[in-house]
Amino acid sequence: MDRPVPKILLLSLVLLGLSIGCMPKRAIAEEFIDCLIQLNATALDKVGSELQRIDQNLYAVEAKLLKLEQVIAPALEWQEKEMVELVEEFDSGSHSTRVTREGLGEFTNDRYKLTALEVSVYGIGTPDQRSSTVLRVMDLTTKVRSGWEAVESELTARKSTLEEHRQAKLEDGQLSASTLVNVIDYAGTWEIRAIDSGTYSISGPGLGMDKELTAGAWTYYIASKETIPADAQSVPLRRTLSAGFDLPLGSLKE
């Protein structure tokens, strides 16, 4: 995932174009921007950790699917072969065949074991000829037994959910980083007003969000390095910069 422009470069660009006025306000702008950068850096670290966790879970699910296929593929081939042989062997009636308990040991690995493998053909030689199969598997870790299609369906759905979640978190991180750069582009237009000796109001374009950047307002506390949204527009901007994570309002510096 692309990381945001390094903090030093961002601050240098801001200082070159910043025309806030007196030095104290310029210093406040620098500190405020630094807090936003720290917020974004923390968010991207959490995105990276989340992606790592998702990737680990994806690997585990894909490994289970592969293990399942290893025992199911030969079992399905056996059923197809036996179905043909039953029709060739018998001219009429209904007949079935199954793998013995000892034979089922051939369809196993360190994760799954077949517990039932059968095939039946009914009404051989008639227009109503039909067939049915039984293929049940046991998860050797959980000892749960079920039809193989249910196991495959559950694992496939789990994989799809993880892939969707991974893509969503990746996009959250990318949007967070690009939004930060765009916010800083507006730094020279912000209004910085002292509320008291330790508290400042920072407002103007690029400090809010409603699908795209809008005007917004923040409150900055010098002592605690807190940057707190001060209106409805700045709340979703902070959420975007946080990549959707619930991060603390205070300073994120170590």
Polypeptide structure, described:
It is a single chain. This protein has 254 residues and is α+β, with helices and mostly antiparallel strands. The chain folds into two domains: 118 residues, no CATH class; 86 residues, no CATH class. The chain has five helices and eight strands, in the order H-H-E-H-E-E-E-H-E-E-E-E-H. The chain has a four-stranded antiparallel sheet with strand order 1-2-3-4. A four-stranded antiparallel sheet has the order 5-6-7-8. A hairpin with a 7-residue loop joins strand 2 and strand 3. The protein is rod-shaped. The two termini are 23 Å apart. 24% of the residues are buried.
Sequence of strands across the biggest β-sheet: 1-2-3-4
Uncertain stretches: 11-23
| Major beta sheet summary | 4 strands, antiparallel
Q: Whole-number radius of gyration? A: 31 Å
Strand content: 15-25%
Name the shape in a single word: rod-shaped
Helical amount: 40-55%
Structural class: alpha+beta
Amino-to-carboxy terminus distance: 23 Å
What's the helix-strand series?
HHEHEEEHEEEEH
Tell how many strands the DSSP assignment holds: 8
- Count of domain modules: 2
Mean pLDDT: 89
What's the number of helices?
5
